[in-house]
Write a structure and sequence with these properties.
It contains four helices and 31 strands. It is mainly beta and about 475 residues long. InterPro entries: Cu-oxidase-like_N (IPR011707), Cu-oxidase_C (IPR011706), Cu-oxidase_fam (IPR045087), Cu_oxidase_CS (IPR033138), Cu_oxidase_Cu_BS (IPR002355), Cupredoxin (IPR008972), TAT_signal (IPR006311).
Length: about 475
């Protein structure tokens, strides 16, 4: 159970950031200063995509969830929970070509694989009722009939998901389609996934796990590497940013406030590119940007900062080193991808997300998660408007909403239109304490039992999740 001290600590550490709607932060937390020295001594690892067996129009993978000893911090070995012994693996999939994954569980805890952002059948969505017990296995089928987007795989077991993800079980899943492939955006080696997470290490490299220790994880890992450097060419790069942390938000700034181009979010490309100098990335979210390193020339170094910090932290999380010239046929077009019209909402719902200090539970509409209770019953193809209310103004605790099965549009925040960077399809929206957001969602492809929940993972583990049964 959380103590009153824990709640106050959460409110104090989150208040400055939570007071600004996602996508609209324009400055750093007061009092944050760059350290005198910012060593970046470890090269970034850019994982090659896993290679599938290509069988009868499908891509087949076997992912074994298992413990592995890997080198994260220089000079030490860390025991992680992994897919196939790897940190931050990548799967690339094609629209219209289904992926089948056999998940084999060699952990000593259950695991239930969820494709975050995927439009998947109920039996492959990762519901806790389908969790794979130690020593077991299960097939997951992903139809890949949705539009291109950066998705990710993580655990959704009933009691272990937060720790499993914290200890390393997260894979990036990049879905492409013909529409996106025809655009002249950076491709191939210049299209780079970057998983961001935080961790707390002991001196011997061992990970320290505390469900409530979100403000004590001072090491940020990028693709599993602490404060790495990345050697780039003087040309444009597409960077796919994935926040796989339990609860840490990132407010990202490049160099001394250099401009870059925001092109996509959870549900894929934005309608049009958005020039920006600061970008928020909340737990579970994905943001895609294009950085043109030709503007700086060979020899320039630019640090990517997280400008919202807990006490004792320094802002630099990785460095880009421009080391060579390169031909660059890519460009960012003026128009990217229009957002589909979801129609007129026929149903309105309200969800109040709040913390109960008496029980230490996080609640939706006053109730904790119950696997044996259905909370709402949407109909397939019927548009709905959801009002997400953060009822924790007195504590300063941010919450988010992530419905499974389909993406949504943000209609407004506190009655005002969303920022340009939130104009595309989303699947996770964070709401600051005491505020609200309205979203529109339409479930279109599958029926059955699905979840919706906060993506602050300790909040989920303490009850902030509901169930919906989607029917025709």
């Amino acid at each position: 159970m959380l103590t009153r001290r824990s709640v106050l600590r959460a409110g104090t550490s989150a208040a400055a950031l939570a007071a600004v709607p996602a996508g609209l932060v324009t400055g750093s937390r007061s009092g944050v200063a760059r350290a005198a020295a910012s060593p970046f001594t470890t090269p970034l690892t850019v994982p090659a995509p896993l290679r599938p067996w290509r069988l009868a129009g499908h891509d087949f993978y076997r992912l074994t969830t298992e413990e592995a000893d890997v080198g994260l911090l220089p000079g030490t070995t860390t025991r992680i929970r992994s897919f196939n012994g790897r940190m931050s693996p990548v799967i690339r999939a094609e629209r219209g070509r289904p992926v089948i994954i056999e998940q084999v569980n060699r952990l000593d805890v259950p695991f239930s694989m969820h494709l975050h952002g995927g439009h998947t059948p109920q039996t492959s969505d990762g519901h806790p009722m389908h969790q794979v017990e130690p020593g077991g296995s299960r097939l997951f089928r992903y139809p890949n009939e949705q539009r291109a987007a950066t998705l990710w795989l993580h655990d959704h077991s009933h009691e272990n998901h937060a720790e499993n993800i914290y200890r390393g079980l997260a894979a990036t899943y990049i879905l492409t389609d013909d529409v996106e492939e025809r655009l002249p955006l950076p491709k191939g080696r210049y299209d780079v996934p970057l998983q961001l997470r935080d961790a707390k290490f002991h001196d011997n490299g061992r990970l320290d796990w505390d469900l409530h220790g979100f403000d004590d994880r001072h090491t940020v890992l990028v693709n599993g590497r602490p404060r790495p450097y990345f050697e780039v060419a003087a040309r444009k790069y597409r960077l796919r940013l994935v926040n796989t942390a339990n609860e840490r938000p990132f407010v990202l700034r490049l160099g001394d406030g250099e401009e870059f181009t925001h092109i996509g979010t959870d549900g894929g490309l934005l309608p049009e590119p958005v020039p920006t100098r600061v970008l928020q990335l909340w737990p579970g979210e994905r943001q895609e940007i294009v950085v043109d390193f030709s503007r700086y020339g060979v020899g320039r170094r630019l640090v990517l900062d997280n400008t919202y910090l807990f006490d004792g932290e320094t802002p630099g999380i990785m460095r880009f080193d421009v080391v060579r010239e390169a031909r660059d046929p890519s460009r960012v077009p003026d128009r990217l991808r229009p957002v589909p019209d979801l129609g007129t909402s026929a149903v309105e719902r309200e969800f109040t997300m709040s913390f109960d200090p008496g029980t230490g539970r996080h609640l939706i509409n006053g109730r904790p998660f119950d696997m044996h209770r259905v909370d709402i019953r949407p109909r397939l193809g019927v548009p709905e408007t959801w009002k997400i209310v953060n009822g924790d103004g007195q504590y300063g605790i941010p919450h988010s909403m992530h419905p499974h099965l389909d993406a949504f549009k943000i209609l407004d925040r506190n009655g005002k239109p969303p920022a340009a960077g939130e104009a595309g399809l989303k699947d996770t929206v964070t709401v600051p304490a005491g505020e609200y957001a309205r979203i529109q969602v339409r479930f279109t492809e599958h029926t059955g039992l699905y979840m919706y929940h906060c993506h602050m993972l300790s909040h989920v583990q303490m009850g902030m999740m509901g169930q919906m049964e989607v029917s025709r």
